[in-house]
Amino acid sequence: MFADAPVVVAANRDEAVDRPSEPPARVEDDPAVVAPRDARAGGTWIGYNERGVLAGITNRWREVEGGGERSRGLLVLDALHEATAEDAVRVVERAVERHRYDAFNLVVADENAALFVEWDGGLSVRNLAPGVHVVVNVGAALGGGGAVDDDFFVPERRPDAGAQQADDARRVRDELTPTPGETADEWIDRARAVLGDHEFGVCVHGDGYGTRSSSLITLGTENRYEFAPGPPCETRYEQVEGQF
Q1: Is a pLDDT exceeding 90 seen at residue 132?
Q2: Which residues contact 175 (CB under 8 A, 6 or more apart)?
Q3: What is the pLDDT of residues 150-166, one digit of tens each?
């Protein structure tokens, strides 16, 4: 949390290269929501609304029996219909009772609260203290209030990749710990560099899969969304216009 920006987020999206998507835009009107869109399933992986609620989701590398009945990206849009982060979590709690989703990690936040939601057939919700928190497919490197709490699991099908993700998340958290007197803009500049630095392992290039886009979102006295429509190591961020 910064004095002028209680919610600041830097996020890369990794996905199959042939999965179509649309850049951030105003996608809902009541309330107004700004988000990119998954052109295949219709949902999103990150966005925020005019009430200052942000939601972002990642896959979670665990199997859920009967999962995939409904897209996880639609759940993000459901959350962004709400007035507060707390209300958004209540929507998620009801949704997993009605539908079977594939496993996910979800963060919802506003100026008063930030919550981390984990679903892999059972639901876990915890409050996040002010600080830097890094969420990946195998859990999160949580930090805030002077405390550090790693919460990772080893995925059965890809243990080596899981261990590497956990290590990358810790290094990103440590690298992006705010410095004394740092502003939100200064932190975003540092986060921009980390998201495109292969030394941190969060800009991914693979065979048919990799980092497809990157988002820098600041919510506070002024909302700002910078979006790179490709891997941030080689793609320029541009300001998203026409918000609210």
Answers
A1: yes
A2: 190, 194, 200
A3: 999 999 999 999 999 99
pLDDT band per the 50, 70, 90 thresholds, residue 243: confident
CB atoms inside a 10 Å sphere around CB 148: 15
| 226: amino acid identity, one letter | E
Q: Please return the burial class of 84, using the count of CB atoms within 10 Å of its CB with bins 0-12, 13-18 and 19+.
A: middle
Phi/psi at 8 (5° precision): -135, 130
- Check: CB of residue 101 under 8 Å from CB of residue 64: yes
Residue 23, by phi and psi: left (phi above 0), alpha (psi -120 to 50) or beta?
A: beta
Residue that is written with structure tokens 């998620």 in the block: 92
Q: Which residues pair with 59 in a beta bridge?
A: 104
Element holding 69 (H helix, E strand):
none
Q: CA-to-CA distance for 62 and 90, rounded, in angstroms?
A: 23
C-alpha to C-alpha distance for 79 and 86, rounded to whole angstroms: 10
User: SS3 for 184?
Assistant: helix
DSSP bridge partners of 106: 57, 117
Q: At residue 147, does pLDDT exceed 90?
A: no
In 3D space, the residue among 9, 97, 96, 98 whose CA is nearest the CA of residue 45 turns out to be 9
Return d(Cα 110, Cα 49) in angstroms, integer: 10
Backbone angles phi, psi at 86, to 5 degrees: -60, -45
Length of the chain: 244
Confirm whether pTM is higher than 0.85: yes
**Is the CB of residue 106 less than 8 Å from the CB of residue 119?**
yes
CATH classification code of 7-239: 3.60.60.10
